[in-house]
Design goal:
This protein is α+β, with helices and mostly antiparallel strands and 553 residues long. It has 14 helices and 14 strands.
Length: 553
């Protein structure tokens, strides 16, 4: 403590809002950019692999089609020509022609890399006509080179027909072979194998990954830089406001700050400046009063009565000012509600067609105006009710009350609002429910707040049930159960706090955050309690108790 005022820790004792904001945005940017980059790289890798496999398959099928005559005639010259054409392809590593007896008729490799003989042998024992793709790694290279073997069996009687007339002899020969059930015998002429390397694809992929990483880092750094600039614009006015607040808390009422923006922070700065001006005026008045008192003590005794009269007048003036303040609050509340009522009346007249027919767009706009006027009126009433409760000026008119009748009236008044969302709103009360001691208007206000909230947070075609039961201890419990989205567990303890609404609540359903706080205070004024039970995704149940009317002993 210093000079009767609390000292505040330095700004380095906590993590600032600017740092938190920048860290949060940075993490989001890093996560999004990294995820997109990974997804892009994965898609490109898959696309390159599919392209290589597609190219190899087409190349192998074309080679198999063009080599049928050479396999039948074992024409090595034809093999050399076909091999030379295939080896001109950059990705080609080897070409192997295997005869029907399993011997390799022609082989050529760029780097002394050959496929496993078992691949060709396995095709002689199958009836497949498709390309068999076998990925493997060259064992004779230091780092291991990724290769793809494309093997195609050349069979007699398959769908591939030679485009050359030289095959006429083969066709005539095939016609002379034996036929089993209308199909040629499954004779195989040989197997064609082509090996393609994935090195060039991997090199291209590595270059692309490098470019993507550079772009990703650039985007992340640009986003972080933009976040720093944005947070600086937001936090700079707040820092200045904090500095001035500390000076005012230390007793320097001359400190002031001018609003730098027109947003909420600027509004807060304006209100704070008005507050400091008011404090400065009061401080000046107090100092002036002390000076007058000191001067009064130095004057003669004959002026004591005069000064006392002046002080009494000043005291009367202060009382009058306090009275005027209370009267001002009452007048302002009345003046606010009166134009609201007038606006609502004119809007309803327009909606009823008293001023002529409306277009669909005009009707929609007037409906929104009416909705917001009702919302603002309800917020004004809630603020006034809460101020009365906190000031202890709210009085209860206690009398026997039939809660089932109060509930029926409230439910009936909200049936139209529930029907707009196809919500089933009903009451369930036993016939022998005893009467309670309370203020009927205030208990009706409690139910109105609970039913209104239930309708706001219940989705289309939901259900809301208002029911009553007798509880032990001489109380009647009334509950409002809905099938809405429920309340998150971390929000349940705070739903009755003033000016609080859950972050999970939709924006259009948010109000002043006073309805539940007022309802709880009204219930406690009756000597009852209010509680809430909720399951996320299934709904909520708000309940309160009111004492039963005691029969005279």
């Amino acid at each position: 403590m210093t000079n009767g005022h609390k000292t505040y820790p330095p700004s380095s004792a906590f993590i600032g809002l600017r740092t938190k904001f920048v860290l949060f945005i940075s993490l989001v940017i890093i996560a999004v950019c990294s995820g997109l980059s990974w997804y892009f790289i994965r898609q490109q890798s898959d696309a390159m692999t599919r392209a290589l496999i597609s190219s190899g398959s087409i190349l192998a099928k074309n080679l198999a089609h063009n080599s049928r005559y050479g396999l039948v005639a074992k024409d090595l010259v034809s093999f050399d020509q076909l091999i030379a054409g295939v080896m001109d392809v950059d990705e080609s590593m080897y070409v192997v022609f295997t005869g029907p007896d399993g011997t390799r008729l022609a082989v050529k490799s760029k780097r002394n890399v050959y496929p496993n003989q078992a691949i060709a042998e396995s095709l002689f024992r199958t009836d497949t006509h498709d390309v068999t793709i076998t990925p493997f790694t060259a064992a004779d290279r230091e780092k291991g080179e990724a290769l793809y073997d494309f093997a195609v069996p050349v069979r007699r009687g398959d769908e591939h027909q030679t485009p050359f007339s030289l095959f006429s002899a083969e066709s005539e020969e095939s016609q002379g072979e034996s036929v089993v059930e209308g199909k040629p015998s499954p004779r195989i002429y040989g197997v064609v194998q082509i090996g393609l390397t994935g090195t060039q694809m991997n090199d291209a992929l590595s270059r692309m990954i490098g470019n993507v990483i550079v772009i990703t880092i650039t985007v992340i750094l640009s986003g972080i830089f933009a976040a720093v600039l944005l947070t600086r614009r937001i936090t700079t006015p707040l820092k200045k406001l904090v500095e001035v607040t500390r000076r005012v808390a230390g007793g320097d009422l001359t400190a002031s700050v001018a609003p730098m923006t027109r947003d909420e922070v600027g509004q807060l700065t304006t209100v704070f400046s008005q507050m400091t001006d008011s404090l400065r005026e009061r401080d000046l008045a107090v100092k002036q009063a002390y000076q007058e008192l000191e001067q009064l003590n130095r004057t003669l005794e004959q002026r004591v009565h005069q000064r006392t009269s002046e002080l009494q007048a000043a005291n009367d003036k202060l009382k009058e000012l306090d009275h005027l303040k209370s009267q001002f609050v009452s007048i302002v509340s009345h003046e606010l509600r009166t134009p609201m009522t007038s606006i609502k009346g004119y809007v309803e007249n327009l909606l009823d067609g008293l001023a002529g027919a409306l277009t669909q767009k005009q009707t929609y706009s007037l409906d929104r105006v009416k909705h917001n006027v009702d919302r603002l009126t309800r917020m004004i009433n809630e603020l006034l009710d809460l101020s009365k409760i906190e000031a202890g000026r709210l009085e209860l008119t206690l009398a026997p009350v039939a809660l089932w009748e109060v509930a029926e009236e409230v439910v009936e008044s909200y049936q139209a609002a529930a029907s707009q969302k196809s919500i089933v709103l009903r009451t369930v009360f036993p016939q022998a429910l005893p009467m309670v001691i309370g203020d009927g208007d205030k208990l009706s206000r409690v139910l109105i707040n609970l039913v209104h909230n239930a309708i706001k947070f219940t989705p289309q075609e939901g259900t809301i049930q208002v029911e009553g039961h007798v509880r032990d201890g001489g109380h009647v419990e009334v509950s409002v159960t809905d099938s809405g989205n429920g309340i998150p567990p971390h929000d349940i303890e705070r739903v009755f706090d003033k000016f609080y609404w859950s972050e999970s609540a939709p924006v259009e359903a948010r109000g002043a955050g006073l309805g539940l706080a007022i309802a709880k205070n009204l219930v406690e004024l009756h000597g009852g309690t209010m509680r809430v039970e909720s399951t996320l995704g299934q709904g909520s149940r708000f309940s309160f108790t009111v004492p039963i009317v005691r029969s005279p002993a």
